[in-house]
Every structure is written in structure tokens, then in C-alpha cells.
Amino acid sequence: MTVCYTVILLLTGAVCAYHDYVNTLEPAARQLLDFKLDYPKPIGIMTTMAGKPVDIRETTTLNTDGLTSNEFFLDDVMHSVAERIPERAVHAKGTGAFGYFEVTHDVSEYTKADVFNGIGKRTPVAVRLSTGQGNKGGNDLAKEIKGFAIKFYTNEGNLDFLGLNVPVYLYTDPTMFSSFFHAFRRNPRTNLFDNTARWNIMILRPILLHALFWLFSDYGSPNGYRKMDGFPIHAYELSNKHGDRYFAKFNFRTEQGFENLTTDEVVTISGQDLDYATRDLYNNIALKNYPSWRIEMDVMTSHDITNVDFNPFDVTRLWKNGTYHTVQIGRLVLDRNPDNFFEAVELSAYNPGSLVPGINSPPDTIFKSRRLAYRDTQNYRLGINHKRINVNAPKYLKTYNRDGVPPVNDNMKDVPNYYPNSFSGPVPFIDESRPKERIIVFDSNAVDLESPSNFYRYILSDEGQKQRFIDNLVSSLISVVPEVREKGLKLLTLVDLELGTRVRAGVTAARRKIKDDPWMTIYH
């Protein structure tokens, strides 16, 4: 009855008291009424894009002298047809929030980065959480690697960490990006996701297996964005004020309780709400259940990094236990939803190359390629001045780059527009504690199945996890053409004999069950 009464009030334009609906509508559903409670009267006179007040007779084009003389109409229709910007190629669907990072532990021994030094210091942050492969209208809970991007607005410039909800990346050779991305997107003829294409590229590039094993397991279905961890993937070079070097992998550990969903739970929730993770994040922040993550780093010394029996910069593998120690840094808290999604989330741009003194570039090839690719895609999506957009702008900016497609802000006014100059333009500084030596990593394209084997044997810690992992592999293999399916089963057997045997048995049984089902396509 209360819900019906609230709907009647909304339809009639009446304003009910806050307590009449606060317990019946979630924060996301009551946003419009919240706005009216904050602003009982219209917030101002409507204008054209040039600021001219709009006469009420200009809000209709019926029985008027002409469409082209109505500036309000021209603004409205021409802006509406151009209000979309290109969708991100990957991580297209996402949500975001603002908050702060607070230092809780002294890590000055490892890095001189101002953002991580000074217990109690708070730095504002923006965070974007996303799905990896689907389009903007996709399912939050689809079996996809999730994105976890953080922008720290530090006193030394923006620091961007671009991570995933799993601790490993997909491959080490940047030339694999395009083919992987295409194989896991829609078939160019059918416009459907194609398991044959996915398994085909996994067979031909087995390095993908480790990350995709995480995806096929429960880890591929976190229970919303609040209850998943985040991993910036790379091993960053750190330096302290004395120039000492360390290497660190950063981890963002959820404080809500790490929680994944089973495939059956995903199917049930997805049938009711494709925006489950987005809604969950928004509502919890609105209800002041502010999500938080503990930030830590796994550290190796310069001596450690050159004396381990594996490549510590290989983004497709985990560091071995006993080769590093873990150091606590602080907490990340999200306490504010964006006022406008497009301005704060869709226009946001996170670049792994945005680092600060004391946190230096990782030497791996994937990082080098990402800092190029992200810059290029953001110039394409948002324009050459995308770092001047509010959500991307640093606290302090003095540059010789100016002009181009807006926003240009003050465009550096009348500051000299060339460097070097003798007329008081901005000058560089000397970072005397920056390490002078470089580490060069020689990559190998040899495929090592140790990591996916260890995942099956040790990361999947109980039989329930293993069975659900196997069930997901079986489900993805059923519709794969025979030649590719057989090679996939042989590859799984090379990873682990038990795994290959159980998946083969599962595929055989599943195909037997659906053999006579006219709705299933079976390849003989």
C-alpha cells in the first residue's frame, strides 16, 4: 500500500515527506524525488547553449514560423544526435565513484612518493569498476575479467593504477591484444560470442590459460564490485629518497568480505538485474555503507629480483611464496557517488603511464605497450585535451601543450609557448634520488603450463570449487567444433591429467544429454 501511495504522489506531482518513501525505495530508485526535496522550486530559467533565456513558446515547433529560426530546437536536436562519444573498445560498461586514500603505515623505506608517506594523510581518488569484454548494455555479472582503475589526485600529479579483479594478466606479447580481443568479442558474421573462436585462440596461444582459468572459476564472478579485490598486475620499480630501489606489486583487498558467485547464482541474478554490480555500489554508497579496500604491496629488493628462478616481471604468473614480503600501506574508501555519470565516469581516462616520483615504470613489455595504447585510445575517444577534463585534471598543471579541441581551460594564457625560453616559462626539476640504473628484461615466448597447473591443484582449494570450474569449462566446450574441441581437451590434459579426464567426461555426458534437443546445435 505504501508503495502504491508513493507512486500516486509521484504521478500527481505531489511531494511526499522523506519518511513516506525512504523505507520503500532504494537510493537509486528515489534519486529524482531526492533532487526535488533538495530543490523544491525550479533551479532557474532554461537557456539555449549560448545562454539566451528560452521563451515558453520556443519549446514547441508546432504552428511556428520555421524550424531554423528556433535556436532552442536547433540546440536540442543537434546536441541529442551527437551526445554519444565512442564506446571504450574494452571495459566499455562500468561505473564509478569518488573517495579518498588514507595512509595507515610508514612505507618511506620503500618509496618517496608523497601520496604514500605521512600516516593519516588523505588523497582524493576517483575509481572506475567495469566488465572486460561486454558492450555498454551488457551484464555486470558476465563471466568476464573485471576492471579496477584508481586515480589518485596527488600533490605530485595524478597516479593511475589500472588493475583487474584477478592477479595475473592474459599474455606477455602486446601483439596478442588485437587477436585476443577480437576472438572474445562477437563473430563478425553472426554477431554472437563464439566459443569455437575462444578455444581456438587458447589452443594456439596457451599462455592465455592461466588468466582464463581464473575467469572460468568462481573468481570470474565476484559478488558485485564491492566484494572483489583489485590488482594492478605489474611489478613497479620503487625508489626512496636515498635512491634505493625496490620492486612491488600492489594489491587492493576488499574489506567487505571477499565473495564470489556460483554460475547458478549468476544466472538467477542476471535474469532479474543486468546492472546488479552497478546498483549495489551506488546504493551502498548512498546509504553510507562506504566500501573500502586495504592497500598493500608485495615487495622484493634489488637483490631478490635478480636471484629468483622465474621472471618476476612476467604478468601472466604469480610471484612464488617465500620470494617476497608484504607491506601494508593504507585504505581506499569510496564515499561519494558522481552527480553526473557521463561527466565523471564516461569521460574519465585512466592511463598506466601516469606515475609519480618514487613509483617508476615497470620494465615489462606489456606496460610499455599499454602506456602507448591507452594514450592513443583516449585521444581518439575524448580528444587531445582529455587530461583537462575535470575528472582527469591534476591538482597542478603547467605545460607547453595548448590549443586543440576543447576543453582548453585557461590555455596557459600568455605564458611563453615554447621551451626552452628565457622569459619565465615553466622549467623542469632535477630528481637527484631517481635510480640511475636500468633493468632490461628479456622475454621468452616459450609456453610454461606450470601456472595453470598450480591454479587447478592449489588455488582451487576444495572439491566444490574444482567441480564448478570443470562445469564451466564443459559448458564452454559443448558447442565448439570437433577439431578444436579435441585439441582443447588434449591441452587441458597436458595441464593436469585429472583435469583433462574430468572435463572430457563432462563434455561427453553433456553432449549425450542434449543430442536429441532440436534447440541445440551439435557438430558431428
Automatic annotation (TrEMBL):
GO-annotated cellular components: mitochondrion; peroxisome
Cofactor: heme
UniProt KW keywords: Heme, Hydrogen peroxide, Iron, Metal-binding, Oxidoreductase, Peroxidase, Signal
Single annotated GO MF: heme binding
Keyword hit for Iron: yes
One GO process term, biological-process aspect: response to hydrogen peroxide
Signal peptide (residue range): 1-17
Superkingdom of this protein's organism: Eukaryota
InterPro entries in UniProt: Catalase, Catalase_clade1/3, Catalase_core, Catalase_immune_responsive, Catalase_sf
Positions that bind heme: Y374
Domain Catalase core: residue ranges: 47-427
Stretches of the chain forming a coiled coil according to its record: none
Family (UniProt): Belongs to the catalase family.
Protein name: Catalase-like
